Amino acid sequence: EKLEPYTGNIRESTQQKLGSLQQIFLESAGSLQEHFNSKAEEFKK
């Protein structure tokens, strides 16, 4: 019963880390998409 707040904190921090990882992934995926789109535009010209 003493461990409960501790495991709760671990769970929260893990979710926060996963959330920020997801954010980073989405941002890098977005910039990759933009990069490919601009390359595609260059090829169309």
TrEMBL record:
Superkingdom of origin: Eukaryota
Name of the featured protein: ApoE
Source organism of the structure: Acipenser ruthenus (Sterlet sturgeon)
Lineage: Eukaryota, Metazoa, Chordata, Craniata, Vertebrata
